[in-house]
Design brief:
The structure holds two protein chains of two kinds.
Chain A lengths: L8 E5 L2 E10 L2 E9 L8 H9 L6 H14 L9 H14 L1
Antiparallel strand pairs in A: 1-2, 2-3
Chain B lengths: L2 E10 L1 H13 L5 E7 L2 E4 L5 H4 L9 E4 L7 E3 L5 E9 L9 H18 L4 E4 L3 E4 L2 E11 L2 E9 L4 H7 L15 H4 L3 H5 L5 H16 L2 E4 L4 H15 L1 H4 L2
Helix pairs in contact in B: 1-8, 3-7
The chains are: A alpha+beta, B alpha/beta.
Chain lengths: ~100, ~250
């Protein structure tokens, strides 16, 4: 994914800044990457979260449900940042497209 | 009184330091408090992408690496007036609470006690900042591994804020909820607050004293164990690699 050619969705949670970069195809997330200064434990779970989002319908409800599912499955803790914060950042990236 | 290990690594290459940092967390030498001062460098947080966060063509004379904990860029200029610290501790709900924010608060308390010692109005600002009169003077980052925590943080004695702004891509959203107009108003450093340049060794000694008081332990100067040195050696290639830094 060519990040610098993709418009970011930027959202600030209490725990940090989340910059999302998203490509879609036929209304679904094709590729997604995130850069930010938030905290999330265990750290590696971010890669699972991003992988799980690929193929998801590009709407807030589906994205949030998908992230919440990964949070539960991977026992993610992210002080000051909620699944809805990631969803918000991703929605902003989708709207910027 | 219980003794914990203390190490001062002095002025270091940040890639070597991050390998030692991880080795101390993953070694078995027990609770440890350590200091280092980075050479001119940038450390990315675990979730940060170099090309997004930095104006890379302007960073050519910086050593760049990534750490294993989240949070934001740790920027060090060539003034080398920064005290960086690390704490490795067993999470036990007494010394090092399981609750993430509580554990930040506990370790950041050492910095606050030190700043109060110098007469400053220091406070903990969740999640991970220490402030003086609401301006950030210290950023901290924590990760956890097998029942232990590793917290790294920095205390700014002097800071080239214009240089940091020159090399980084900080969007305006970063400051929206901090009730400050810009990063210039939101950051401070010890030399500025005190109006004089303290000797760094003196500040480190005060921090050590405050650490001992807060944790009710005696710090005993030590070195890396052979196992930690081996672990460091095996971790070094990661911190020097393009795959890790620019992923």
């Amino acid at each position: 994914m060519e990040i610098l050619k993709t418009k970011p969705g930027i959202h600030k949670s209490r725990g940090g800044l989340i910059r999302s970069f998203v490509n879609t195809e036929n209304g679904r997330i094709k590729d997604i990457t995130i850069s930010g200064d938030f905290f999330l434990f265990p750290e590696e779970a971010i890669f699972i979260m991003l992988e799980n989002l690929k193929g998801t319908s590009a709407n807030r409800e589906e994205i949030l449900k998908n992230i919440e599912h990964t949070y539960e499955k991977e026992n993610i803790q992210s002080p000051g940042t909620a699944p809805s914060d990631f969803a918000e950042s991703i929605m902003k990236a989708l709207e910027a497209q | 009184m219980e003794e914990w290990r203390f190490i001062d690594f002095g002025v270091v290459d940040i890639r070597d330091m991050m390998a030692m940092d991880e080795a101390i967390l993953k070694g078995d030498e027990g609770n440890t408090f350590f200091f280092w001062t980075p050479k001119k460098s940038i450390i990315l947080g675990f979730f940060q992408k170099a090309e997004v966060e930095l104006d890379l063509p302007k960073c050519k004379d910086y050593t760049i690496t990534r750490r294993i904990s989240g949070g934001g860029i740790a920027f060090s200029d060539d003034r080398c007036r920064q005290i960086n610290y690390g704490v490795v501790g067993t999470i036990d709900n007494d010394m090092f609470p399981l609750d993430i924010i509580e554990s930040y608060k506990q370790v950041c308390g050492v910095l606050i006690d030190m700043l109060v010692h110098y007469g400053l109005n220091a406070a903990f600002r969740p999640i991970n900042d220490v402030t003086v009169d609401s301006k950030k003077i210290s950023g901290n980052a924590q990760t956890r591994w097998e029942g232990k925590l590793l917290q790294n943080g920095t205390l700014l004695l002097d800071f080239d804020i214009e240089e940091m702004l020159r090399i980084s891509n900080i969007p305006k959203e970063k400051f929206l909820d901090k009730k400050i107009a810009s990063i210039r108003e939101g950051l401070t450093w010890l030399d500025r607050e005190l109006g004089e340049q303290l000797d760094m060794e003196e500040v480190k000694n005060v921090m050590k004293d405050k650490f001992e008081e807060r944790f009710h332990v005696k710090l005993k100067t030590g070195t890396l164990s052979n196992k930690e040195k081996e672990l460091t050696k095996s971790l070094l290639p990661k911190y020097y690699s393009t795959e890790w830094v620019y992923r």
